[in-house]
Structure formats: C-alpha cells, structure tokens
Amino acid sequence: MKRPPVRDDLQAMKGYHSPQLEVDVRLNTNEAPFPPPEDFEKAFLQEVQKVDWNRYPDRLTWSLREDLAELHQVEPQQVFVANGSNEVLQTICLTFGGHGRTALTFEPTYAMYGQIARIAQCSVANAQRDEAFRIPIDVLRRAIEVEEPDLTFLCSPNNPTGTPESLEVIQTALRLSSGAVVVDEAYGQFSDFTALDLFGAQDASESLIVTRTFSKTWSMAGVRLGYCVASPWMYEEFEKVVLPYHLDSVKQIAGRVALRFQDEMEHRVTQISDERDRVSKAMAELGVEVWPSQANFILFRTACCDLPGQEVWKRLLDRSVLVRNCSGWAGLTDCLRVTIGTEQENTIFLAALQEALQ
Ligand SMILES: Cc1ncc(COP(=O)(O)O)c(C=O)c1O
Fold first, then answer.
1. What is the DSSP string of 195-254?
2. Domain 8-36+263-356, what fold?
3. Alpha carbon nearest to ligand 1 atom 12, residue
4. Which end of the chain is more exposed for a tag (fewer CB within 10 A), N or C?
C-alpha cells in the first residue's frame, strides 16, 4: 500500500508525549488535585440546559471574554480564548511565526514552545538559563540582538523549574525585541508576580501577550480552556488564524461558571502552596536537591544517592507513583518533576521517594 508523504520537516520531528499510565498517585502533569467545588457542578448543569444545540456557538466568545476582562481589569477586546493555552500558543505561532521567522526560548522551559513553533514552520533559537534557571539580562540581550526573534517565549513561573521570570527580564525583552513577547502564566496564580499588571501602565507595550489557562488552578484540565491578554489589535489577527466557532458553547459556559468561584480557586492555591512548601522541605531532608518553586510542582535531582533520575522514576512507578521524568532533557540531567497533589498523595509520594532512594 502506498503512503502519501507527510511534510519533510514533520518526518524529522517527534511528537510531544507525557505518559498516561494507570497508577494510584498521578503527579506528572501539574493538574489540580481537587475537582471544582460542588456548587460549580450544579450551576454548570443548570446553565448548560440553555444551550441551543442546533446552533453554532458565539463565535466571538464575547460573554466569556467580558468576564475574563473584568477579572483582569482589561477590555474584552484584549482577551482571546481558545481550547487550552496550547491552542492559544499555536494561534500566536501561526500569527507571528511561519517560514523564515524565528521563535526564541530560554532552556530548560516548556517544550511545547519549540514544538508548536516548528509545526508553524518557524525556526527555533534556544538560549540558556543560568544554574538557578534564571535568565541573565546579558544572555537575553545577546539572544535578542543575534536572533532578532519574531516571537520570544518567557514562562512565569517557568515549567519545569518553578522559577518566576523577573519584571526586569520581561521589560528588557519588550524594549529590545521588535517581535511579540509571550509571558506564559499557566501557573501565574501561584506566583507573587504577574505580567498582567503591565497592561495597566499608560505606555503599555503593544507586543506583550500574557497567556493563562483553566487547566491548573481552576481545576479544569478536562475542559481544555485557555486564553491570553494582549493589545486589542492582536485579537483581529488571531481571529484570522483560528478556525471559525473554535470554542464550543458548553466550554464557554464552563469557563463563565468557573469564574464565579474565584474565592474557592484562591483557597485551593493557598492549600497547594502550603503543601508544596511541606513537600519541598521533606524532600530536602531526604538529601534530595530541590529547586525553590513558585508553582504547583517541584523540580528535583537525586544525585545525592548516586542514583540516575531514570532509575528513581522507575522505582517510584513500581510503587504506583507517577512523576515527570525530565532526566533526559537538555540541562536537566537526572532531574524529575513532581506535581503537588492532595496531602495524602504527597505523603505517599514522600514515603515512596524515601524507599526509592535506598
Ligand atoms: C507552561 C505551560 N504552558 C501551557 C500549558 C498548556 O496548558 P493547557 O492545558 O491550557 O493547554 C502547560 C501545561 O502543562 C504548561 O505547563
């Protein structure tokens, strides 16, 4: 049988995979460990009865954009919503990327920036973070001067390291680059800093894009909903790129109802942050190298015990605990990343880790 040839560049690429394995304790994809509150479910079921199933959804996703704009004190025209922040990133790459254009990342960081940019036929330039996983200003400056990126990806807090980007880094990127600057705040609510504040400034940059998601702190990874805040002119461009009616009616309702439960979301963030600090301290006491995190996950290395990260990952899996194996990623030799779960899940993880290190 003849197979039609796929794109040449695609043949050389690998897909992005995070194993979905049946385990007792799943701490590998930075989801929230709790479902949304019960009242969310009740309110959602009520609202969903009003859906006109035979009609296309609101193409402009206007009501949801209005609600998000109110949440962030911006204009609805500045908000673009899509199926998860990955689709937002894809839309950004299709808008600013393409053949002959360059996307800049600071490694190690979220692998999808490079992946999505390449799919959008962009070339990808990688600069390196320092040992504390910060972006040194001189590295940033040089990378922008040399690469002249059409797109620069910053991630705050950075996945998989948990490090927030500094205001200085973001402002420098905005000042030096003539391309779009994306600040991915998928874990923004865990951090003490948000680039969204920059939209309030009188001379707010026209090239800043801040992305957020419902997948983490809003406990709605199953829904696939994300958004970005940017200059109103960008929305017009994103609209050209995204498919018509890309966001279904049910999802738009889910997002709007979720936003009614902001206090509960903030309570979950506090709970998870407290747990993160407990787990981090306990891991350090086991002799594990732990990086400070402002997110709902912790990056760690088990060099203390002369055990390769891959072996520790496997020993945890043998104990039905799944964490993210970053040990083969550039700049993260022997590193693993654990998502903060419920108190009980975290306790099971710590016990399994202690055993795995013996
Ligand atoms: C930094 C970062 N950005 C974006 C995403 C994608 O999130 P979403 O579920 O909204 O597509 C993730 C998911 O893990 C992430 O870690």
1. GGGGGGSTT--SSEEEEEESSSTTS-TTT--EEEE--HHHHHHHHHHSPTT-S-HHHHHH
2. Aspartate Aminotransferase, domain 1 (3.90.1150)
3. 186
4. N
